[in-house]
Amino acid sequence: MGAVRTRTGRRRAVPWAVAGLWIAALVLLGPLAGKFAGIQQNRAVDYLPDSADSTQVARVQDELPGGESTDLVLVYHRGGGLTDADRRTAAGQIAEVRGAYDLTGEPRGVPSKDGSTLMYPVSSTQPGQDEEARDAFVDGVREIAEGGGGLSAEVGGPGALNTDMNKVFETLDATLLFATLGVVTVLLVLIYRSPFLWLVPLAVAGVAAVAAMAAGYGLHELFGVTVTGQSGGVMTVLVLGAGTDYALLLIARYREELRRHERPYDAMRTALRGCGPAVLASSGTVAAGLLCLLAADLNSSSGMGPVGMAGVLAALVAMTTLLPAVLVLLGRRVFWPLIPAFGSEPRARRSLFAAMGTSATRRPAAVLAGGGVLLGALALGTLNLSGGIRQEDSFTERPESITAMRTLAREYPERSSRPLTVIAPDGRAEAVLERARATDGVAEAVPGRGGAGWTEIAVFATAPPETPAETRTIEALRDRLDPEGAYVGGPSAQQIDLAAGEARDRKVIVPLVLAAVFVILVGLLRSLVAPLLLLAAVVAVWGAALGIGGLVFEPVLGFGGTDPGLGLLSFVFLVALGVDYGIFLMHRMREESVRGAEPEAAALTALRTTGGVIASAGVVLAATFAVLTTLPMVGLVELGFVIAVGVLLDTFLVRTYLVTTASVLLKRRMWWPGRLSRAPRRTTPATDDEPVSAPAS
Fold this sequence. Notes:
697 residues, alpha+beta, 4-stranded antiparallel beta sheet, 7% strand
């Protein structure tokens, strides 16, 4: 009786202790999570490689007198031509700006050839590096620059563009959080058909999000990890998407065990033992794939690795500790009205995935070949992906800075309105200035500030910003000025360096991700063939999803280009997340094979028992990434679209048909060179050292 009382007390004490520890953790982590939005850095230079020319220029500018400058262009335009009154209005407003702020020079009006436009470049070092001060400066200038009566007044330039981007990222975290919570809520209600159960995983996911944001803040403060608005948004999606997936798998197994165990504590302990290894392995593949981003040259990509990993691990810990504790404390009644009674049998019903698997195995070779051809045909859509997106095309809704940029490009075709910035050593400044002026494609070069051993030179190209002609001018300048120890930077040069960094990172990161995931799969499945099959499947899905993007982005959505980071980031997420579902399916297939099932029976049993849960998890994950498509940044829309489409392809085509049919065709060769590839059939249950089953639906 004493032993019984001890066990009963432990059953009651452990869930309460776990819940209490999480409450204490929330009290400690909450204030840190509140600081997460404040550490996000969204300037273009924050995304660049440390070694890039444009990064060096930005660092030197910080050391010049006054520090970093905020550069604007005030654009006054009237379609029929500016009047004398328009020019007086513009001059008066410029004088008001000059009186309100400390400018680095006297603004000089530059009229267009047809007399319809007048632009005033304005620059100030007064805001410095403080983002709030820079945004306040831009907003203040916009309040002064007002048109009317047919005269338009727009504030553009790099400083205005950064402010418009900051305003998007300021609302990004809250928008993503609430939109994702709404999507997940609807899906959980539909999946569980319970008025209460959906609240539990959703609340735990919210707790995991707080822990992840606190961890992200800690990574920034302790290790200097770069946190951008993009990585913060992706982390939110990962926490809620992956966390809900883990909850679906655990709750499905827990419901099954409640029919076999009288006490919820015992049922949960068995459920954790059953699905724990598969959940750990799946989260491990995602974490390993994200950690490979540490090898990236781009600060934004290398920072996304540990930030994303923090999100996945926070979701894992919360869903394997807090969620079980809360479910045990609530007992069976949380499943009302479909309460799984002890000793009952689940209602028999025809499994959709069993029917799909049966149809696929009738002609497995034809199904496998047809699926491969379909994925290959979709991948051809990547040929329609256009080049890197320009800054003026990076918003789905054009802010004022973009309309000003387009007006300048239209009215000043003979020269760029956005200067390139050259930083030259003081002793060679004159030589650099002469070399810059003599470079093909340069309209004008003007010396600017000096200090800290450097001289700043503004170079105006004859070509519009971010065009092939301007790119050739930048490359020519770098070739001519490099011997003089000068650097060429500025917004256009930053875009070139971003694209170069992305190209370099793809060559390094892609093999690393494949190698890391392959090693984890080999350790889990004890085979070489099965991991290769899963990796080939997710790579095919990645190509097909990108191809669908190529058929949609420009022809349907009208996007002007493709974000340079789309290929790498979509690859990392689709490979790491896609392998998750393969782990659950293949893990169960291996267990059935260990128990002596024939290859075809093992494949069908695995599909029947895990298909429903995997499908639910896939829909939830795709829906959470699809939330990114509602944001006003083209890069995030493209990333969310490709990952959502890829997850759905992986869930309903690759896992259901291609992996199943390949397993049937390969038979026991699937497990080569492991013991299952050559061992005779076994009819005894799996021993303790064999892998346990993946969660059943």
